[in-house]
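One record is set out below.
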Amino acid sequence: MSNQTLETEIIFGGWSTFEKPTAEEIAIFNKALEGYSGVHYSPLFVSAQVADGMIYRFRCLASIPPSKRFFESLLMVFKPYDSDAYIVRISRI
């Protein structure tokens, strides 16, 4: 068995595998959600794609406070190279 380190390679136009989000990805997620209210999203995993910036798919647990019932959602966030991140789509899964 080899002791090689596996690294996620992002290919232009292709999605990376879903992994736990980094601190930088969490910051992008939070920036994109600024001003949104009504539903609380907690990112569990993220996948990314290079496309004139970065497109992120955040797999989240969501709830509508004060309810303690959760459902899964997929938030697609676009982060252009030269401006702030914003939400492209929110889908319940």
